[in-house]
From TrEMBL:
Provenance organism: Aerolutibacter ruishenii
Protein name: Diguanylate cyclase DosC
Region of the whole protein represented: 460 to 739 of 742
Domain of life of the source: Bacteria
Annotated ranges, domain EAL: 23-278
Amino acid sequence: AAKRSRSGIEAYRADMSRRLERRIDMASRLDQALRHGELQLHYQPQVRLDDGGIVGMEALLRWHDTELGWIRPDEFIPLAEERGMIDAVGDFVVGQACAQIRAWRGAGLLLPGRLALNISAMQLDADTFSERLITAVTRAGLSPTEFDLELTESGIMVDPVRSLAIMKLLKAAGFSLSVDDFGMGYSSLSHLKGFPFDKIKLDGSFVQGMLTDRSDYAIVMATVTMARNLGLQLVAEGVETADQAVALKSIGCELAQGFLYGRACPPEVFAARWLQSAPA
Ligand code: C2E
Ligand code: CA
Ligand code: CA
Ligand code: CA
């Protein structure tokens, strides 16, 4: 038994050091990736549950490294934050998103609703965040009213007083504000009252559990009712099956996002599948 646990520890150590190496490798590559265009945005539609029509879209960041392969944002966003690169990554996302809207429009395509961008806690916390964002958008000849900013509750609770001030400013500039991953982490309800949100994005874990777990179902129902009573839009995230869509519809949820409708895909694929030409 002693021998076995010894080799267990060794295997564990080897695994840890492989992971550590991957992270170190990744950190040095992320900087290059930014400069060499290895990061790109993919787009996922937000749809109406009743007819599947598109009402908006979310930009999701992708990184393809020649040696490490595809790296998930859940893995490299925290790394970018640790290494002081998150502002550069965020600026890249905003620049890329603006360029994409212009390109689609230049090609005569009609954009349905707003483009949602994810903003991490640390991005929101940077002193220059709102100013840089507004400048980038207006310099691109676009208006903040074309964007929706997705913030997490944990993100705004790092410094709630300051977050509130920034959010008011962003909202006054024309951005719409969404709570991302609603239901995870912090006790959510009181925040909705104090912050100027337009939309709630209910975390996919509740949707995925709603047909098998009574508390998940109860949480989805309560969120639908609450959003309606507070006058907030609600998007159910992570909808994967037709049964989930039917259940959501039956309790009065109107908007959804998830693999059932479409995965995040590159801009050309997204445009071919989801965007229509403006009438001449
Ligand atoms: P998120 O904002 O909650 O985004 C939703 C995630 O769920 C995305 O993963 C999306 O691809 C995935 N997803 C969508 N529909 C389904 C579904 O039906 N089932 C399942 N299982 N998953 C679904 P992704 O693209 O890997 O992004 C992960 C997280 O990384 C995002 O979570 C967001 O927090 C962060 N992120 C992505 N892009 C950016 C960015 O540009 N900036 C920042 N700061 N964070 C980003
Ligand atoms: Ca999001
Ligand atoms: Ca989410
Ligand atoms: Ca998430």
